């Protein structure tokens, strides 16, 4: 069997982004009101967002106690917990945990630990999500005395429609 031809394209090279660069601001993507009246958020920095092939890599910070619904994505999804800890459903995920979600699978709800969590995520295809088992989300909210708030506005690339409000009815 012969080796495949190289896919090399002359002139192509890496794209390098630094986390603290001003062109890459933090975005609030999910919000909640906590039992004490304070608000918590999921903050993300989208490091690479490609239309062809579709993929998204991002750096995420969950404020302490932040809850995200049980969901899946329209692509395989990788999550690596860098700091703090988070619960993925009934599984405790401290720093150093790798979570792999295949296309068609769902995970969560996610509940950030008392110090919050920082994660690196990659979606290898359409990164948008779909909701599942809204009762699991409702139970996590009730357990922690949390009220979900409307999703903060986001600027998606022109080639991708925001589906977050489509799934809000499930919550």
Key terms:
171 residues, mainly beta, nine-stranded antiparallel β-sheet, two-stranded antiparallel ribbon, RmlC-like_jellyroll, RmlC_Cupin_sf
Reconstruct the topology from this structure.
Elements: E1 27-33, E2 39-51, E3 54-62, E4 67-68, E5 71-73, E6 77-88, E7 91-94, E8 98-101, E9 110-123, E10 129-131, H1 134-144, E11 147-148, H2 164-168
Antiparallel strand pairs: 1-2, 1-11, 2-3, 3-9, 4-9, 5-10, 6-7, 6-8, 6-9
Q: Structural class, judged by helices and strands?
A: mainly beta
Number of helices: 2
Cα separation of the termini: 53 Å
- CATH homologous superfamily title of the domain at 27-138: Jelly Rolls
Reported by name, the CATH topology of the domain at 27-138 is Jelly Rolls
Number of strands: 11
> In the CATH classification, which architecture of the domain at 27-138 applies?
Sandwich
Beta fraction of the residues? 35-45%
CATH class category of the domain at 27-138: Mainly Beta
Q: In percent, how helical is the residue content?
A: under 10%
Q: Unreliable runs, pLDDT <50, ≥5 residues?
A: none
Q: Which shape, going by the Cα principal axes?
A: globular
Give the rounded overall mean pLDDT. 92
The major β-sheet equals: 9 strands, antiparallel
Topology pattern, helix = H, strand = E: EEEEEEEEEEHEH
Oligomer: single chain
Rg calc: 17 Å
